[in-house]
Specification:
Distance between the termini: 77 Å
Structural class: mainly beta
Largest sheet: 4 strands, antiparallel
Number of strands: 8
Strand order of the largest sheet: 1-2-3-4
Number of helices: 1
Oligomer: single chain
Radius of gyration: 22 Å
Shape: elongated
């Protein structure tokens, strides 16, 4: 029948390219000591065992800042606001600290820490 070639063309698999394959260069990988991750507002956020918080936006321009003296244990990015909440340790044996960061405001190039309070476990 005359519709057969048109039907065959319609049923062919179509290939869509969503991402361009681009190998990462030296020094563009996240550190091996990642301890917490979250995502939101177009970025992947990771905390590490050295107290740094890392940002990996869609542009793949990796950046970081020192958030704690020891380690980052938890991260939570608010989905509707540019607010990041982190939990980490500045001193060994002391209660972890919760820090609230405003990612739109800067303090010497780093996100502005707007609040710090001790994390307490319910016992």
């Amino acid at each position: 029948s005359s519709d057969l070639p048109r039907m065959a063309a319609y049923l062919q698999w179509r290939r869509f390219v969503f991402f361009e394959k681009e190998p990462l260069g030296e020094g563009q990988l996240l550190p091996p000591s990642i301890s917490a991750c979250d995502s939101g507002r177009g970025s992947l956020l990771c905390g590490d065992m050295e107290g740094s918080i890392w940002f990996l936006p869609r542009s793949l321009q990796l950046s970081s800042f020192q958030a704690y003296k020891l380690r980052v244990t938890h991260l939570f990015q608010l989905k509707q606001h540019s607010i990041l909440v982190s939990v980490g340790e500045d001193e060994e044996g002391i209660n972890p600290l919760v820090k609230v960061w405003n990612l739109e405001k800067r303090d010497g190039g780093n996100p502005l820490c707007t609040r710090i309070f001790p994390a307490r476990s319910e016992e």
